């Protein structure tokens, strides 16, 4: 086992402290509306970490992360109404099922890169949007699709987290584990292979790295993370709506991952705050939420043209400068 | 035209014919012809959107996600102008002018900042522009059911015993005319030659003294005009709603992929067949619900098919 696996970087310890603070104080601050907004923000931060990781570590653009979340959520709801298994078992199964879908999606990745890969994932997102809109999400009905008219059957939350406050804490813990899962991979041999692939695929192949395997691996991780977040989202609301999983949402999530800064954990948090909390805030202040789109778009152009590491990268540089080091 | 492209044409035609036979085999033409006509109209829209994408992509390497948003802005402007009592044809010109201005502004001032980045970054950047336009348009025109009518909606033309509105016929004819026009433009004019050169090798063309900025601006202009016209047609034939028109770029990209981001005639045939197949699926009891999925499935299959036999190898451009 590599000793550097457990080394705590300044950024990493800040992240853990941040998660701990959120765990301790976030549920106390909010009313019931904000509790659900914050829970979904935490869940989307986790989902963003998946796309951000693929972009930052391998330069692969996935425009279907929210669609994959929909698959995870669908499996979660389906299992919930079919069996009496505990929440955690269902969540793990949902993550695994989504991981397999991620692999299927990765098949084209064996042959494509760059723009074409992004477009394949976009086609998948478009297809998933229509499947969700047609078949809807299970709510306790009969048959394979499990959809019935009227109010849905009760959804079992984890026994550790029956109240909304506890559920928010639960999501924070799972999301932190998700971030650590990705970081752990980055520090072991897949991370080294990814770094080499990112620098030069030719060099990676020449060095004997199985490029196909490691790219597929990355897709699997992003899929599993998306599946788990979809499952958590199902648990937060007890039901899912196809409007949450449109292709446009996947595109938006990817855009915001870049705005936030794909290389840093803080970037995923910023992306989720922009994605879920900013529209809520604008709503409370009586500002048209459509203006959030203008902010997102301008932020995306700004990030791509002048700040490749996003807002988190700029904060990172600022901190480094304040401490007197090289930016 | 090479033999390969004839094969591709044939595949699309065979696909359409196969689905036609499977789903509409025993039915009278009076019934199935309706689906064919509406499918051709929708398919023309996909194709128009795809043609605009491909022309720009070939000349500048930018896959323009903001074409739909520019069209939406144009269509909403046209609606507003009609509401203010302007003579409708002027409003339609306004639609195209707004889309053209937005697209040119991006192409002239923002796109050059990213000219040497990877294609995927350039594509994602246009997404940022699309979000800005969409945000502003939705802010100016709050959600409300609206519609944009064209005088051609009232005119019916009887073809093969079917009554088809002139708007649908116009979309279809425009798609074909535009493909022929652009094909002639690229093949017969000096600017067209330069555009093909830039598409082939941007850096080498610059060395040869081709005015790259001018050529690219013209490509952005063509793409803007097409975005405006497509937006107007979408608004009339599908729905006048900024979000819907903006994200119609996704099936347009599917049509562009049908031509492998390269061949205009294949984009046209591919887009048309996507529309027809989508429309014919209404006849299938099982697949009726998921029929809008057709463009994505076809595009994904085309991508997989066109990449068959290739493997990830050393470097090169993507």
Shape of chain A: globular
Instruction: Give the domain tally of chain A.
Output: 1
Rounded mean pLDDT of chain A is: 86
Rg of chain A, Cα atoms, Å: 19 Å
The chain-level structural class of chain A is mainly alpha
| N to C succession of SSEs of chain A | HHHHHHHHHHHHH
Distance between the termini of chain B: 24 Å
Largest sheet of chain B, in brief, is: 2 strands, antiparallel
The coarse silhouette of chain B is: globular
Q: How is the biggest beta sheet of chain A arranged?
A: none
User: How many distinct helices of chain B?
Assistant: 13
* Ends apart, CA distance between termini of chain A: 32 Å
Structural class, from secondary structure content of chain B? mainly alpha
Tell me the helix content of chain A: over 70%
Total number of strands of chain A: 0
Strand content of chain B: under 5%
User: Roughly what fraction of the amino acids of chain A lie in strands?
Assistant: under 5%
Tally the helices of chain A.
13
Oligomer: heterodimer
What features would you highlight for this structure?
heterodimer; A: 327 residues; mainly alpha; 73% helix; B: 318 residues; ABC transporter involved in vitamin B12 uptake, BtuC; two-stranded antiparallel ribbon; 13 helices; globular
Can you offer a commentary on this structure?
The complex is a heterodimer of chains A (327) and B (318). Chain A has 13 helices and no strands. Chain A has 327 residues and is mainly alpha-helical. Chain A has one domain (3-245). Chain A starts with 9 loop residues before the first helix and ends in a 5-residue tail after the last helix. Chain B has 318 residues and is mostly helical. Chain B has 13 helices and two strands, in the order H-H-H-H-H-E-E-H-H-H-H-H-H-H-H. In chain B, a hairpin with a 2-residue loop joins strand 1 and strand 2 (162-165). Chain B has a single domain, classed as ABC transporter involved in vitamin B12 uptake, BtuC.
